[in-house]
Amino acid sequence: MQTTFVLVHSPSVGPSTWRPVAEHLVAAGHRVRVPSLLHIGTGEPPFWPRVAEAVRDGVRDVPADSPLVLVVHSNAGLFLPVIRAALDRPVAGTVFVDAALPARTGATPVAAPELLDFLRPLAVDGGLPRWTDWWEEADVAPMFADPVVRKTVVEEQPTLPLCYYEQHIPVPAGWDDHPCSYLLFGPPYDDPAAEARARGWRVAHLPGAHLHQVVDPVGTARRVVELAAVA
Measured between alpha carbons, how far is 112 from 108 in angstroms, rounded to an integer? Predict the structure, then answer.
């Protein structure tokens, strides 16, 4: 059966961060799904079950015997174990793209203590600004080569509650029952890439900023296919 690429965006941004890559994968003859996680910050915690459910629902129309390749960007990587546990179908591989990694054992915190210290003063009535509003323009501008793409990505972003970043995500045993690999764009994700190597995963480097997939969707799509080892 034809493999389906499931492009999972960070809950801090939106599905438009994967759409250019999705278009190139489709043009190359691959089946693709891009589940939306824009709603997962609504309501009370825990939030992680909504991420797993959104991905599961996003592939519901894919034939049950069609292997999936999960492609997770940024902090979507932390949810991979619960995503895998929610799927009742074969997973041929996972590609972590400039992504945080789940803990080897035990629950995974969404944010390190130093990030929480940075975020807490930004919160108003428990809610945070959009992700790109956390940073200076000098940090945001290099992530976008096209002003139209920037406008789309920025306007689509959800405003997440602070408690989203305070949650811990369970790590079900056996989540890595398939080949995993890592695509690094650049700092500050060098350490997760090094951890991926330590776990024995394939690691590739495509130099760029954190949203490089919207800048170079062709190169990103090519590397994802190579790492997934899908013809």
Answer: 10
Q: Single out the residue of 152, 144, 166 nearest to residue 211, CA to CA.
A: 144
Ordered DSSP codes for 146-206: -HHHHHHHHHH----BHHHHT-EE---TTTT-S-EEEEE-STT-HHHHHHHHHTT-EEEE-
Tell how strand 91-97 and strand 168-169 pair up: unpaired
Task: Specify whether the CB–CB gap between 15 and 80 falls below 8 A.
Answer: no
Q: Report the C-alpha gap between 215 and 50 in whole angstroms.
A: 29
* Alpha-carbon gap, residue 34 to 59, rounded angstroms: 9
Residue 144 phi/psi, 5-degree rounding, is -130, 125
CA dist., res. 153 & res. 50, Å (int): 22
Q: What is the pLDDT of residues 83-108, one digit of tens each?
A: 999 998 889 999 999 999 999 888 99
- What is the bridge-based pairing of β-strands 91-97 and 180-184? parallel
Whole-angstrom distance, CA of residue 98 vs CA of residue 164: 20
Q: How far apart are CA 180 and CA 196, in angstroms?
A: 9
pLDDT, tens digit (0-9, with 9 covering 90-100), for 131-161: 999 999 999 999 998 999 999 999 999 999 9
Residue 202 contacts by C-beta under 8 Å, 6 or more apart in sequence?
179, 181, 182, 227
| Burial environment of residue 203 by CB neighbours within 10 A (0 to 12, 13 to 18, 19 or more) | middle
Residue, of 63 and 1, whose pLDDT is higher = 63
Bridge partner residues of 95 (DSSP): 71, 181
